[in-house]
Design goal:
- This is Cilia and flagella associated protein 70.
- Pfam families: TPR_8 (PF13181).
- By secondary structure, the chain is mostly helical.
- The protein contains ten helices and no strands.
- The longest helix has 17 residues.
- It is elongated, with a radius of gyration of 19 Å.
Length: 179
């Protein structure tokens, strides 16, 4: 136990979890994924149960295209706490991963995640856009069209997402009230 006490003392003197998180965020913004990953590894060692660390790691995996690991990190974030500072993006991106996987069970999960994101911030065009996709895939025309209207009203900037919505609208034959 003496070694453990020494270990804890050293940790107190060293950089904090917050320090590594801020550093990781900075690297993420610069798209320097490997440096961000190093910082997050340090942060996880200091505070394994910190939901913000897992949220950042989720973003890192999400942005570098590793969706299955991003999903694990986001799910872990949510299981650790409900007031993670990144929770809105966690729900948004988790919802989009569930949608990409397109399994029926996952679509219900996607809707839960997106509804959570929406409750936290209902002025986010991307959340409305993903909700429109969920509703179209569930055959719920009215909700799909309402969600789509909000996404457009809030000036959805994500061109890729907009194209995907238009493709699904053509496929299902509804979802765009302006036709």
């Amino acid at each position: 136990s003496e070694a453990l006490a020494h270990e804890l003392l050293c940790q107190q003197e060293g950089p904090s979890c917050e320090y590594y998180l801020v550093l990781a965020q900075t690297h993420l913004l610069k798209k320097d994924f490997s440096k961000a990953e190093e910082c997050l590894r340090e942060a996880i060692q200091i505070d394994y149960l910190n939901p913000n660390v897992w949220a950042q790691k989720g973003h890192l995996c999400y942005l570098s295209g590793n969706l299955s690991e991003a999903k694990e990190c986001y799910e872990r974030t949510i299981s650790f706490v409900t007031d993670a500072s990144e929770i809105h993006f966690v729900y948004l991106r988790l919802g989009s991963i569930y949608l990409k996987e397109k399994e029926l069970k996952e679509i219900a999960e996607a809707e839960d995640a997106l509804s959570e994101a929406n409750a936290l911030n209902n002025n986010n065009a991307e959340v409305w856009a993903y909700l429109a996709l969920v509703c179209m895939q569930g055959g719920r025309q009215l909700e799909a069209e309402q969600s789509y209207k909000y996404a457009i009203k809030l000036e959805l900037k994500n061109e890729e997402l907009l194209q995907e919505i238009h493709e699904v609208q053509r496929m299902v034959g509804f979802g765009n009230p302006s036709f």
